[in-house]
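job 3f2a | input accepted
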Amino acid sequence: MKFPSIPDTDLRRRSGAVVYRLGRAEWAQADLVNVGRMSGGESVVLSKDGSRLADFRFEDCLRADTSTAVAELKDAGLLVQVVSGDRETAVGLIAEQLDVPHFAAVLPGGKTTHIAALEASGRKVLMVR
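job 3f2a | predicted structure (129 res):
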């Protein structure tokens, strides 16, 4: 198997002439004319030569102390944001629970750009995972 590097995309592997992709449906099935959108709960698609093999669904839940920690940061006057590569639906729900602004479907390079812009505006950035 070959392991090519594709910046700011999902996972692609080649086995002989066969290409496997794991990621967003529109990317994993990029070789097909009619990709079709994933429903809200689907997060990741595994494809073989552009044909969908499997769907993987994930659900995000906040840790018990997250709301309290975020509220304390906001009370201290700090800007709290959610910047995520996940889809709008999932990120929006989490951000709404925390009452913070959010940015969804942000690729790694976009996160770097977002952080650089905050730093350029004089902010110090802390990332929590």
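job 3f2a | The first strand starts at residue 11 and ends at 15.
job 3f2a | closed
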